[in-house]
Amino acid sequence: MTAAALAHKLRGLPVRIELVESEEIGTVGVGEATLPLIRKFNEALNIDEATFMKETEATFKLGIEFCDWGRPGDRYIHPFGDYGRPVDNIPFYQAWLRLRQLGETARLDDYSYPIIAAEMGRFQRPGGDPDAIQAGFGYAYQFDSSRYAQFLRRYAEASGVIRTEGKVATTVCDPETGFVRSLVLDNGKTAMAELFVDCSGFRGVLIEQTLKTGYDDWSNWLPCNRAIAVPCESRGPLMPFTRATAREAGWQWRIPLQHRVGNGHVYCSSFISDDEATTQLLGHLEGPALASPRQLFFTTGRRRKFWNRNVVAIGLAAGFLEPLESTSIHLIQEGITELLQLFPDTGFHSADADEYNERMGLAFERVRDFLLLHYVANQRDDGELWLHFQNLALPASLEEKISAWMTRGHIIKYEFGTFLPPSWLAVLLGQNLIPRGYDPRTLKIPEDRLRAESRRLREAVLAAAQRTPDHAAFLRQVGGASHQAPLTAGVG
Ligand SMILES: Cc1cc2nc3c(=O)[nH]c(=O)nc-3n(C[C@H](O)[C@H](O)[C@H](O)COP(=O)(O)OP(=O)(O)OC[C@H]3O[C@@H](n4cnc5c(N)ncnc54)[C@H](O)[C@@H]3O)c2cc1C
Q1: 20 to 30 Å CA-CA from 199: which of 57, 185, 487, 491?
Q2: 61: annotated active-site residue
Q3: Beta partners for 217?
Q4: pLDDT tens across 365-420, in order?
Q5: According to DSSP H, which parts of 313-446 are helical?
Q6: Domain at 1-80+138-219+300-436: CATH architecture
Q7: Does residue 200 line the site of ligand 1, with CB under 6 A?
């Protein structure tokens, strides 16, 4: 992603980009669910959506379904879009909170077009009349990340990136400044550069092994540290959403692609053995496994500096936050965007690095808080992992956010940050944190009017979802279906 984007965006400048990569090491091979900003990335690179979807076996994604997170049996969808429409400039959910206290039973979900369309297995792109209920939502993709990497490699090479095969064996640094000057590969080749982007994954070959930048370990807040991943055959209709189901010592993902379903169990090794985690995962597959389960190890946290001297770490080399809200590829994009905005000249002004580090630090912290909310807002009592969160000291930023919410449903807005208020709302309400009050301005609106407007909205959402095509049919219609894909399989 980084090489492709830099090649495209820096075209015309005297910049030469060389990508050093090792086939033998390979890529991490997981990472299939994304956030809506990925569309901007592809658009900025003039990538045609249908071609990309066909090549990567991609499906459309309207949000994430969370099962059993608040209490066993609960379920909610975190949609890529807002709920309802503001009433007299007051967010709609405030009117819903008031009506709820007056006995109204409709779910807030019933006012969200992406949720209702997702529940029905339907999809179409946002658009049409800008005032229509289905005009203003976001969508993302679920794709085969290895194929996406290959797709972008072809794109990057066609855009002038030189790819050098080989394993970095040693790094040569300037003895005075500590700047990295060149890489020596195990095949004897040398790669020299002025700026190095470390995309070497968890190893952090330059940012950590060479520069010893240090890592802030966030395991106390997010203790899951392992995952088992396995693809399986799909059963049932192709749903336009990712699913995350809470388990006794972690959670399980289900990501529907065109040709298979990606599954994984993210867990904390202090509370469950690897064998038991694998057994639980295999016991919950909807169809036969298509490969042997693969284990991954990680420590949640972030590099102390993302940009250190002339090295910028992007991707897993920069840090890792578990994939509960599909944020890693998104953070890669943010890293690339910030790097382009602050692209250095050979002088390397420390203010640029400072600004980059500050912005990316904030991006990581805000994602951390949002992920932590899912664990903290649990009422489960079926495992030590869940009990761990009951008396946990929270980061002040999250403490503040939850307390503002619990009084009158106020969601503190951030100037930067991946997740906007509707996302926080989805998780807070979805996991049973119901505020004591609501925005008093809703009292100015007569109850009859509130009831009538909310009924109209519910009906409009349902009617729009019913008019929306089936997800698999839409994928075929827009030319995004790969030839061999069955798209829907009979229920086994
Ligand atoms: C369990 C799990 C689930 C995930 N799920 C999601 C998800 O649903 N959504 C999401 O957005 N993200 C997810 N991620 C994160 C996502 O997989 C990564 O962000 C993404 O794949 C990018 O990885 P990367 O390029 O940083 O690292 P890698 O894929 O590990 O690539 C590292 C590259 O560096 C090269 N390399 C390493 N060392 C050397 C060396 N010494 N010499 C030469 N080359 C070297 C390798 O060959 C490889 O090409 C998940 C991660 C994990 C662990």
Answers
A1: 57
A2: yes
A3: 301
A4: 999 999 999 999 999 988 999 999 988 999 999 999 999 999 989 998 877 778 99
A5: 328-341, 350-376, 384-388, 396-408, 421-430
A6: 3-Layer(bba) Sandwich (3.50)
A7: yes
